[in-house]
Amino acid sequence: MVDIKLLLFDVDGVLTDGTILVHADGSESKQFNIRDAAGMVWAQRAGLAIGLLSARTADATAIRAAQLGIKIISQGGADKLAGYEQILEAAGLADHQVGYMGDDLQDLPVLRRAGFSAAPADAAPEVRAAVHWVSASGGGRGAARECVEYVLRAQGHWQAAVAGFLDS
Hints:
By secondary structure, this protein is α/β, with parallel strands linked by helices. It is built from 7 helices and 8 strands. Strands 5-4-1-6-7-8 form a 6-stranded parallel sheet, sandwiched between helices. It has a two-stranded antiparallel ribbon with strand order 2-3. Strand 2 and strand 3 form a beta hairpin. Helix 1 packs parallel to helix 6 (143-154).
């Protein structure tokens, strides 16, 4: 866990509750949890890279990533393992340096490779059984925040990440 340099998150079902609203004009919207976002920002301030790995392509995902300063984003690849491998190659990282949180069966190949694997509480049973750690919260309900906190605590960085808030 100490070696983790990059935390990757699936989007639909992890950073959202899996709901996609399709509007009459064909556009889509998603609902993201602000506490998850805060955790990802704190992780970046603590020196961890944050990335998104999604099989779907959605403008909302790209916009949210930009809002949070997330530079590593892979969307639209049905083969998540191929996207994962491209991210690792571009970042110069090995499996043991990556944590990944996913919720469904298509995430299993990446979850099996990552040095640290995690899932929201409402992930598919097969996923929960395959990962190192399961959040107490569901996707889009704080699971990513809990994952960030878990990793930062294990690395000894949590107190420094939140010190400014605790000292005020």
